[in-house]
Amino acid sequence: MQDSYDVVIVGGAVIGSAVAYFLTANPDFNGSVLVVERDPSYVKASTSLSSSSIRTQFSNPINVKISQYGSEFIRNFADVMQVAGEDRPDLNFHPGGYLFLANTAEGEQTLRENHAVQRACGADVVLWDQDELARAFPHLRTDDIRIASYGQSGEGWFNNTGLMYGFKAKARAQGAEYVTDEVVAIGRDGAQVTSVTLKSGAVIQAGTVVNASGPRAALTARMAGLDVPVEPRKRTLFVFDCAKTPEGSAQVNQGRLPLMIDPTGVFCRPEGRFFLTGCPPVEDPAADWDDFEPRYEEFEEIIWPALAERSEAFEAIKVVNQWAGHYDFNTLDHNLIVGRHPEVTNFVYANGYSGHGLQQGPAAGRAVSELIIYGQFRTLDLSEVGYERIVQNRPFLEKAVI
């Protein structure tokens, strides 16, 4: 490890490693990159504990385009990210699609408005009435459904840690350095950050500092005398088995079931021979940094009743596993924050993904690298989700947050 780097990235999970990859992959960048990761096992990282899905069904064009790029990147991942002499890093992408259901006039209007945005961006999404929905997925009870929105391609789920480790391996092969340590202080001289101090005692000079520290983003920002409205919010996921699985019964997509979002907010998707499910919590306070205790009651009280109501196949189910992870939750508007601090311009935010970090990681990593190399976004303009909106208390509107 050197005593000075052009770019120091705080956090080495999927976002930090994506930034490191895109920097070192760009022939216009010849600087040095250090990634500081406090726990290289990543056992409690949001990346490792996520449901690892990707969708284009958002209400804002920026989010749609971010995921379209992410979907393309994931499809080509094995070729692009292969390291010489190593196996191809296949993410086992499962193109199951997303299925949003609406049973109110307001919900129907939202899906129709979202669909118009998605189609304008070229997303492969269709709207179905009740009869079309019932034909496509005959296991569902559809009597209360007014409309459904279904992603026919470009949506699904994949290997979450595979994405992270693939970025990391390729970034290291391209010259990025990784160190197992923890940033405990950030030096600052007026409007510039100058260094990071590590728990080991090392002081590293830094030309640019990238905050990619997930749910701990606010702690990292405060070390530089700055702030960001990001806090850990706990989400519990359950894996369940069915007495009689409906997987294979779909009349579309070769029988594969999608990730379904019920009007109650409960979601469910196939996970091998099992199913993965979760729901928005009734109460959603900030979690303690080290609190990963699942909310076991959510399955019995919220999830099972909703699923049993939606499908006879989900009446006889049993939990076989559960875990809790943390969203890096943006309390202003539940959307990513990517950009420089407007005053301390060599401090760059890559935070606040609020559950969308895996699918938005490729586009965010590319965007941060462009800011550092060129001083501006070059491929996809993410100015709307920059830090300026935080200062101005101007939320970035996205209606399709789950």
Description:
The protein has about 400 residues and is α/β, with parallel strands linked by helices. It folds into two domains: about 200 residues, FAD/NAD(P)-binding domain; about 150 residues, D-Amino Acid Oxidase, subunit A, domain 2 (D-Amino Acid Oxidase, Chain A, domain 2). About 30% of the residues lie in helices and about 25% in strands. The chain is built from ten helices and 18 strands. Strands 1, 2, 8, 9, 10, 11, 17 and 18 form an eight-stranded mixed sheet that branches. An eight-stranded mixed sheet has the order 5-6-4-13-14-15-12-16, sandwiched between helices. The model has no long low-confidence stretch (mean pLDDT about 95).
Topology:
Blueprint: E1 4-10, H1 14-25, E2 33-37, E3 53-54, H2 61-75, H3 77-80, E4 98-102, H4 105-120, E5 125-128, H5 130-136, E6 147-151, E7 156-157, H6 160-173, E8 177-180, E9 183-189, E10 192-198, E11 203-211, H7 217-223, E12 230-242, E13 259-261, E14 267-271, E15 274-278, H8 297-310, E16 317-330, E17 337-340, E18 347-351, H9 357-374, H10 388-391
Parallel strand pairs: 1-2, 1-11, 2-8, 4-13, 11-18
Antiparallel strand pairs: 3-7, 4-6, 5-6, 9-10, 10-11, 12-15, 12-16, 13-14, 14-15, 17-18
Helix pairs in contact: 1-6, 1-9, 2-9
Give a quick precis of the structure.
This protein is an alpha/beta fold.
Keywords:
single chain; 402 residues; alpha/beta; FAD/NAD(P)-binding domain; D-Amino Acid Oxidase, Chain A, domain 2; 2 domains; 8-stranded mixed sheet; 10 helices; 18 strands; 28% helix
